[in-house]
Amino acid sequence: MSRKLSIFYIILLLFFGSSALFSPVTGDLSGDRQALLDFLNNITHPRSLAWNASSSVCATWSGVTCDRDGTRVTALHLPGASLIGQIPPGTISRLSELQILSLRSNGLRGPFPIDFLQLKKLKAISLSNNRFSGPLPSDYATWTNLTVLDLSRNRFNGSIPAGFANLTGLVSLNLAQNSFSGEIPDLNLPGLRRLNFSNNNLTGSIPKSLKRFGNSAFSGNNLVYENASPPVIPPKQKKKEKKGIYISKPAILAIAIGVCFVIFFLIAVLMVVCYVKRQRRPETETEPKPEKLRPAQKMPSEKEVSKLGKEKNIEDMEDKSEINRVVFFEGSNLAFNLEDLLIASAEFLGKGTFGMTYKAVLEDSKVIAVKRLKDVVVSRKDYKHQMEIVGNIKHKNVAPLRAYVCSKEEKLMVYDYYSRGSLSLLLHGKIGEEGHVPLNWETRLRFMIGVAKGLAHIHTQKLAHGNIKSSNVFMNSEDYGCISETGLAVLTNPATRANGSARRYRAPEATDTRRSTPESDVYGFGILMLETLTGRSSVDDLKEGIDLVVWVNEVIAKQWTGEVFDLELVQTPNVEAKLLQMLQLGTSCTARVPAKRPEMLKVVETLEEIERN
Ligand SMILES: *[C@@H]1O[C@H](CO)[C@@H](O)[C@H](O)[C@H]1NC(C)=O
Ligand SMILES: *[C@@H]1O[C@H](CO)[C@@H](O)[C@H](O)[C@H]1NC(C)=O
Ligand SMILES: *[C@@H]1O[C@H](CO)[C@@H](O)[C@H](O)[C@H]1NC(C)=O
Ligand SMILES: *[C@@H]1O[C@H](CO)[C@@H](O)[C@H](O)[C@H]1NC(C)=O
Ligand SMILES: *[C@@H]1O[C@H](CO)[C@@H](O)[C@H](O)[C@H]1NC(C)=O
Ligand SMILES: *[C@@H]1O[C@H](CO)[C@@H](O)[C@H](O)[C@H]1NC(C)=O
Ligand SMILES: *[C@@H]1O[C@H](CO)[C@@H](O)[C@H](O)[C@H]1NC(C)=O
């Protein structure tokens, strides 16, 4: 619980102080590097952290984040890094530009590392889930900018310091599951939004200034509750109380994680929007060149970020009746890495039919793709229902949906990231790219077989895909095609899908109704085959107004069949017969009359035959 909550804590930091994270600093990176090495060399760490003294701190050291210019270390995230023992003094505290420090879930012991108080830039610190013990220091005047303090799940004892009152910027304070005793000081911290003092050994009563957090924030102590009835609630909060103050633990967790996701993407989107604007580059449907958001790229102004973040935050926090949640599917181990998303560098991958896709690199180098759906027209219930269906399609030729987020504003989907890029990218190359290596016959055939199998499986589940196109097709670990974006077509407004390259794949009968059926999928697959065989780029053809089906049929009718194929294929020895077979299959899939198109199972059979012979 506290671990999950700490996700939330770190997120808070993003609203309440993202500004200085990117401010120019003067200082010494080699000093930071030495400080980190001194730390690591003097602490037991059975698991290697891969901090190679001869490689770049900012670029390669796991858990280390630098400022925009790569001149100083600003964040250190080492959650669950198997660090054991006492923190060597005078090491981490030398990282004078450090703003985020997460050492949660390690085996750290000893007293509170008092030299951390020298980290004047610190905005968030989590020592949660370690074995720190003894009393806390009394004076916090140096942590002027601290917003998040998480000391939960340790063995700290003594009283809660009244000096916390000097942490005027504090937004979140978690001291749960320690051995604090004595009375709770009257902490007048108006900005505090989250507080957890539960499971300690506190006595006395809850001070007035903290009553707004409710008794649940103080459970598991020896406190005297002045009132057996629910806590006094400021008038402003009364309304939402009615909606339900008694939120279950999973709901709180869900809200926290949901909020995290929402905010992260809000910020990411903002950055992307700003960046795209500045670059004035047109958005295209095929993957554009990946654009690094960080580091060393233009950021939205501080004002923009913090304003948006704050508004969003307040809105989400006050709307606790909303069931914001992220749902993970079996087989994904992402749950443990969600927090890392927040410091992950996000990269805009492309704008597709259903929204933007981003690539996020997690702390442990895991890479995921996150799709942010736009124009979702179905109810939340229907959305979730559809996600459950999609998430439970387990097939090696269907790109697995790892998780989804469903909140009021955001519908997000988490997929694996395919480093080789989509079929579209491999076939046509990046826009403006020179020296693109043409895709060979083998690979093209494997793409087709994979997609055909994936689609056939989807159809046996009584589903339709509804958005087949080459930018949705990737290569799985067995080097066969697999298809992404399954089942999204039913979620969004068909009108918004009327444009773009998706149109090229749409079956004639689906142009008006825009309903997806297995037959219209077969048509889309036929176009995909023709695209793969001819190597014609969907974007170029769209501009020229060429209908691939019409063009292919014209060329065939004129007996120039050879002209249809991509040069690379024509030059491949001994595949002429196979090419013709494929072309025939492609054209039969794109038959005008739906009933004349073969079923996907039949298509798979034919393709496998072609592969075997
Ligand atoms: C820690 O290890 C470094 C070597 O990296 C050494 O120079 C230093 O004296 C050790 N002790 C402390 C407290 O940093
Ligand atoms: C450290 O990195 C350098 C090059 O960056 C490499 O040659 C060396 O093998 C690496 N050392 C370790 C221990 O990984
Ligand atoms: C605290 O944050 C403010 C605003 O971001 C900044 O101007 C100030 O320098 C920070 N204080 C310290 C000690 O870093
Ligand atoms: C705190 O714990 C230490 C042992 O870790 C003990 O020696 C000390 O007396 C405790 N202090 C209080 C106030 O309980
Ligand atoms: C806050 O810090 C100042 C020193 O900067 C100190 O004089 C004051 O006592 C502190 N307040 C509390 C409540 O500890
Ligand atoms: C809690 O405090 C009481 C005295 O106030 C003490 O007797 C008891 O041992 C403490 N319990 C724990 C778990 O520290
Ligand atoms: C406080 O932390 C405990 C874990 O020690 C958790 O069970 C509880 O739900 C938390 N309460 C709130 C209000 O966050």
From TrEMBL:
Compartment(s) of residence: Membrane
Transmembrane segments: 251-276
Keyword annotations from UniProtKB, A to Z: ATP-binding, Leucine-rich repeat, Membrane, Nucleotide-binding, Phosphoprotein, Repeat, Signal, Transmembrane, Transmembrane helix
Pfam families, per database record: LRR_1 (PF00560), LRR_8 (PF13855), LRRNT_2 (PF08263), PK_Tyr_Ser-Thr (PF07714)
Annotated region described as Disordered, given as residue ranges: 281-308
GO molecular function: ATP binding; protein kinase activity
UniProt binding sites for ATP: K371
Domain Protein kinase as annotated: residue spans: 343-610
Superkingdom assignment: Eukaryota
Signal peptide: 1-20
Key word Zinc-finger present: no
Classification via InterPro entries: At_inactive_RLKs, Kinase-like_dom_sf, Leu-rich_rpt, LRR_dom_sf, LRR_N_plant-typ, Prot_kinase_dom, Protein_kinase_ATP_BS, Ser-Thr/Tyr_kinase_cat_dom
A single GO cellular-component term on record: membrane
Transmembrane found in the keyword field: yes
PANTHER family, per the entry: OS05G0588300 PROTEIN, PROTEIN KINASE DOMAIN-CONTAINING PROTEIN
Protein name as it appears in the record: Protein kinase domain-containing protein
Taxon lineage: Eukaryota, Viridiplantae, Streptophyta, Embryophyta, Tracheophyta
